[in-house]
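One such shown below:

_____
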Amino acid sequence: MVGLIDLALYKGSKGTLKLSERGLEFRGGKREQFSIPLERIERVSFKKTEFVTSTLYVNDIEITVCRAHLWAAKIRELKGMARAPPARA
């Protein structure tokens, strides 16, 4: 079952970001792909902007996606993590 799926940017590459019980997965061009198993996600935060997109931070990875605050909340929910404040600029 998929938690969330949306278009995203990672290192300037357009792709699809997907969250499931197995983890977080980005599929872009051939060079820009990654997968993080849920048990390896240690830190989650986000930074809202005045635009539609915002920035999601997972461990040391920065991803531009719509509604990053919802992604962060869903990741915390799947991991059973305590709620953390948004990232500071």
